[in-house]
Write a structure and sequence with these properties.
Helices cover 46% and strands 14% of the residues. It has 739 residues and is of the alpha+beta class. The strands form three sheets. It has a ten-stranded mixed beta sheet. A five-stranded mixed beta sheet has the order 13-14-17-15-16, covered by helices on one side. A hairpin with a 2-residue loop joins β15 and β16. α4 packs across α7. It is elongated, with a radius of gyration of 44 Å. Pfam families: HATPase_c_3, Morc6_S5.
């Protein structure tokens, strides 16, 4: 025993003479204390006492300690016995590490000149190849659809107490420049069993749960692998049925599997359990495997050390889950597919999903902004992603809450239609086969912009945004949008569409019919020319009176002409006869002509007032119209005068704003200069810090190696001491017998 004490003092003095940082020396002392307590304790359990003043409930974050006093100070795994290649005569060659492509659509390509590892053996089990992770993620053609999967998982935790989901970005600690995604909620978290179910392929507990969209057990894997090559998950769960609180960390890394040429998908995980306010490792009867998993996670994680990784648990509350997605994918131009710079409170997409013309149109037409921006803006898409949000549940995007938006607020002239599909073998009797359809014009429809489509929800989740069912040539159908929740249609695996079935085809045909009927009936109300069906309806109403009016008036005009023309002819004829005869008397014909002339004059006198009356009315209408126009002109002049006065005020305000703008720009330049200086100084400090951290890690690794060697020496010495004690006891027994 004295020999061991002298050996410890010698080793500790040797390490102290190296002028090392106090952190490794503290670890060394803690290890010696732990070894001494393990040799003296009769019950080999937790060797560290509870931290002073700490409690399990109501304590501050980060106050809980790990079983060995420090998360970096977990018991060191003994090195395994390795065969020296020099003894076997085999020459070892370091394998050439493959590099994963940073572009998503090229990451699944395998080089033909690289021979894949052999998987044949006596084990007949079929394994999941790592490339399946990438192939499975290609179901998400649209990156924002992958975000929706992660939001769905957090929203489903509202029944377990979740009140928010926070989507944010941060910087990778190892390289100090690349961006990472963080999706965090305060739901119920996952215990170790459920955590492994989540990381498994094809397992889902939501298949038969009401009001949940998930049913394939594929969303988490496809969404994380679509956004980035690697993901690390931290989760904490309260113990069920009075059990202890647990926390777990697992890594789903395509980079690790690809570059290490794994032949099957491996997801390393480690678990902890809170016992007496200390986090104790749950090794599941395989301590070496637990340490191997922890070493793999730390090595391939985005964190610089094991301590930095364990610090992520402090961000969780009593329960919750945090997903960190790193090594994000690049686009075809080598730029990051996700845009974090354009809007500090949004995550946008680059490439074909971004249309600058639509972005400018969204500023001019605010009631149509979701149609124009949802393809590239996560904030716009998330605001209409759910038909309803649970009470007190918030979606927070980069520090700012996403305002939930109902598309009904963008509609006008709405009509309600009850849609009930025809019963078929695809529908079960338990399903709600009736759906309420809202159809109308978007409020910006009078501007004649090309916006149309039906927004189809399934169990509160938007599956088909602005589904265009009528692709008409020209402007037919523009401005018509609809809202429908169809729980009887089966969504596809990526939840960006529905399964192509006969039922979906019938729904599409019915929506097409509804849109055509609504458009032809009401398109003239927003400024379009009436369509063919509307023209036929109008001709049947307006053309019939127009054809009847000439028919009523025409006989009167003909009777007048027939009564007038014979009288004039007869008069001329009788006058001619009278001139020829030179008679003094009046003939019967002359008498008749006189009577006819009198009748003609009488009819003329009767018709003249009827002709003068419309003229008077026309003159009166002209006077009224002239007075109305003059009053309108006066009011217009007054309005023009008011506008001119307001324009002068606006001009003065513009001058003041320009002056203020100049002052603000000068202040902004000064602030930017100060900010640049601060960033330079911060970068210098970070460089020094990284350099110091690297030196510390190297020193710590060297000390760990020496400690392992010391352990081996101590084991050897213990064996010798035991042998000496046995010899001493044997000698005593021999001596006693001799006496």
């Amino acid at each position: 025993v004295k020999f061991f004490q002298l050996l410890f003092i010698d080793l500790f003095g040797h390490f102290s003479s190296l002028s090392l940082s106090p952190f490794p020396l503290r670890n060394l002392a803690l290890l010696f204390v732990t070894m001494d307590s393990q040799t003296r304790s009769k019950n080999p359990g937790n060797t560290n006492p509870k931290p002073y003043g700490s409690t399990v409930r109501g304590q501050k974050r980060g106050s809980r300690s790990y079983a060995d006093g420090d998360p970096n100070n977990l018991p060191v795994k003994k090195p395994r016995t390795m065969v020296n290649p020099r003894q076997t005569g085999n020459k070892t060659v370091e394998p050439r590490t493959r590099r994963l492509s940073r572009q998503f659509w090229k990451a699944g390509d395998d080089k033909e000149d690289e021979r894949p590892p052999r998987n044949c053996g006596n084990d007949a089990a079929i394994r999941v190849h790592p490339q399946f992770l990438h192939a499975n993620a290609t179901s998400h053609k649209w990156a924002l659809g992958a975000f929706a999967e992660l939001l769905d998982n957090s929203l489903d935790e509202a029944c377990n107490g979740a009140t928010y989901v926070h989507v944010d970005s941060t910087t990778n600690q190892k390289d100090g420049k690349s961006s990472m995604l963080i999706v965090q909620d305060n739901g119920g978290g996952m215990d170790p069993n459920r955590f492994r179910e989540c990381l498994s392929l094809g397992y889902s507990r939501k298949r038969n749960v009401a009001n949940t969209v998930g049913q394939y057990g594929n969303g988490f894997k496809t969404s994380t692998m679509r956004l980035g090559a690697d993901a690390i998950v931290f989760t904490r769960s309260k113990g069920a049925n009075g059990g202890n609180t647990t926390q777990s960390v697992g890594m789903l890394s395509y980079t690790y599997l690809y570059e290490t040429r794994k032949s099957e998908a491996v997801v390393p995980t480690v678990d902890f359990e809170l016992v007496d306010n200390n986090w104790v490792a749950l090794t599941h009867d395989d301590r070496d495997k637990w340490f191997d998993n922890l070493e793999t996670i730390v090595k391939w994680s985005p964190y610089v050390s094991q301590q930095a990784m364990f610090d992520q648990f402090d961000l969780l509350e009593e329960q919750g889950t945090q997903i960190v997605i790193y090594n994000l994918w690049d686009d075809d131009e080598g730029k990051l597919e996700l845009d974090f710079d354009t809007d500090g409170h949004d995550i946008q997409l680059r490439g074909v999903n971004r249309d600058e013309k639509k972005i400018e149109m969204a500023k001019a037409y605010p009631n149509s902004r979701h149609f124009l921006t949802y393809r590239h803006s996560l904030r716009s898409y998330a605001s209409i992603l759910y038909l309803r949000l649970p009470p007190n549940f918030r979606i927070i995007l980069r520090g700012k809450e996403v305002e939930h938006h109902s598309l009904l607020e963008d509609m006008m002239m709405t009509e309600d239609i009850t849609y009930k599909p025809v019963a078929s073998p695809e529908l079960s009797l338990d399903e709600d086969m009736v759906a309420a359809l809202k159809i109308g014009f978007v409020k910006d429809a009078h501007h004649h912009i090309d916006i149309q489509g039906f927004n189809v929800y399934h169990k509160n989740r938007l599956i088909k945004p602005f589904w265009r069912v009528w692709n008409a040539a020209g402007s037919d159908g523009r401005g018509v949008i609809g809202l429908l929740e169809a729980n009887f249609i089966q969504p596809a695996h990526n939840k960006q569409g529905f399964e192509r079935t006969a039922l979906l085809a019938r729904v599409e045909n019915r929506l097409n019919k509804y849109q055509k009927t609504y458009w032809c009936k009401r398109c003239h109300e927003i400024g379009y020319a009436p369509r063919r069906l509307q023209k036929n309806l109008e001709s049947g109403v307006t053309e019939a009176p127009a054809s009847e009016e000439p028919a009523q008036c025409r006989p009167k005009r003909n009777s007048q002409k027939e009564a007038t023309q014979p009288s004039v002819a007869n008069t001329r004829h009788e006058i001619g006869l009278r001139n020829k005869t030179n008679g003094l008397g009046v003939s019967c014909k002359e008498t008749r002509s006189v009577h006819k002339a009198a009748e003609f004059q009488k009819q003329k006198a009767q018709l003249e007032p009827q002709v003068k009356q419309p003229k008077a009315r026309v003159q009166e209408l002209e006077k009224r119209q002239k007075a109305f126009v003059e009053s309108q002109l006066e009011s217009s002049k007054a309005k023009i005068h008011d506008l001119e006065e307001s324009q002068k005020v606006v001009d003065e305000l513009v001058v003041e704003l320009q002056r203020d703008r100049g002052l603000l720009e000068s202040q902004l330049k000064v602030s930017q200069a100060k900010n640049q200086e601060f960033e330079k100084s911060q970068k210098a400090v970070m460089d020094v810090f990284q350099e110091e951290r690297g030196r510390r890690d190297v020193t710590e690794d060297a000390l760990r190696k020496k400690l392992r060697g010391a352990y081996d020496v101590m084991d050897t010495l213990k064996m010798k001491v035991n042998a000496l004690e046995a010899d001493q006891a044997f000698c005593k027994k021999v001596h006693m017998h001799m006496l």
